[in-house]
Amino acid sequence: MMTCEIADKSAAEVKVMKKDRAGIINPMLDCQPAGAQFAMVGIKDCIPLVHGGQGCCMFVRLLLAQHFKENFDIASTSLHEDSAVFGGSKRVESGIMILAKRYPQLRIIPIITTCSTEVIGDDIEGCIRNCNKALKEEFPDREIHLVAVHTPSFKGSHVSGYKEAVLAVVKALAKKGTPTNKINFFTGWVNPGDVEMFKDYMQQMDVEASILMDTTSFESPMLPDKSIHTHGSTTVEELQNTANALASISLARYESDDAAKFLEEDFGVQGIYAKTPYGIHNTDLLLQQISSLTGKPIPESLVIERGLALDSMADISHMFLANKRVAIFGHADQVFGLAEFCMELEMEPVLLLLGDDNGKYKKDPRIAEFKNKVSFDMNIVCNSDLWELEKRIKEGLKLDLIIGHSKGRYISIDHNIPMVRTGFPTFDRAGLHRKPSMGYRGAMELAETIVNTIFTHMEYTKDREWILNVW
Hints:
Elements (H helix, E strand, L loop, with lengths): L13 E5 L13 H9 L8 E3 L2 H15 L6 E2 L4 H6 L2 H14 L5 E6 L1 H6 L3 H15 L6 E5 L8 H16 L9 E4 L5 H13 L4 E4 L23 H5 L6 E4 L6 H11 L2 E4 L5 H16 L5 H22 L3 E6 L1 H13 L3 E7 L10 H9 L4 E5 L3 H9 L6 E4 L4 H7 L3 E3 L17 H23 L10
Parallel strand pairs: 1-12, 2-3, 2-4, 4-5, 6-7, 6-8, 8-9, 10-11, 10-13, 11-12, 13-14
Helix pairs in contact: 1-2, 1-7, 4-6, 7-10, 11-13, 11-17, 12-17
């Protein structure tokens, strides 16, 4: 537990702790293979092969379908009891050859391990060597990249699984060649709405960037020819050319910094480790870093967009959001970023719940910044779960708002606390994956969603709803 004294000598303190239980009740994050699968479906001409039981693939596809309302191609080696005893290497080799035969456009197959296959010790790298020989013999005119992604689900979470997958595919494919003068733009685990917005920002600044991973094509239009276009958009060539970029920009400390650091250490590609751009200040910093790196000015269009976001926030923050007490749960980059944004809105993020046990969280520099900024008590709970949130509410924690994904909905309902959905998965609200929550546009969108959620609650509970007639 860490405490601090605020500069104005107030009684406020920031506490960082773990929950006081060994087990997990109602987890807020998913397993490592889930994060790896999400990362890999962002690659074009790619079908991940999940090496484990059928459920390790099926339930993740269900989560993705709930969140995006679309289906994704993910294969499984579908291990059974005999493989758990005698090993499942043959299932991997068979699965790779079947995928190569069935999908002539396939260019990359990540082999994503699970808890069972890591425990029995299947040699995935050995499988890849055998499969590379077989693929060359059967498909001499094709190049299919096989990538080992080790993600045992008995440790970490979907956050570390995403990180491991992005790092593995960059390590496997990056190769030195002709400089591209492009930026590697590592988004971390974000929605397609955020990716679309960042691509637009790069276009407005006349900056060429490779988006890793590009999920903007996750929405499948209903076309007359009945074709399906749900797929990732990051190409094999973009992954190979990550070693030849001008620089790498990582937006997520715990999801993409490692890939950017690898490129910096092994290929000399400058790494820029940005603060996750929730809110005005963090977006300012990101655009300033891009401008300084490329020499391209920040265009007037983005200055106007920033001004519109500020105007929108000024309309609502002091009158309706000042001193509102908020609990935020999810993965660390998102939670810390949202907490900073809530403070821009004059709200008080009194409880931050981080859903896995990463020992680096306690040393996160954003926590030190909170200690210098906050004028209220803030509790940060690592390795937390949704039971921790409900327990604290039952013990008397007063909250005006909860921010997190849809699995917190029953706590919101049972305790009559309004909730704003963000993060993964969000399945009980329509179309949220298409809306940005980062950048200036996202700041305006999210601020208005927060205040409209509070307005609805005021009307539902008849709590000073008359104010809405006069503001």
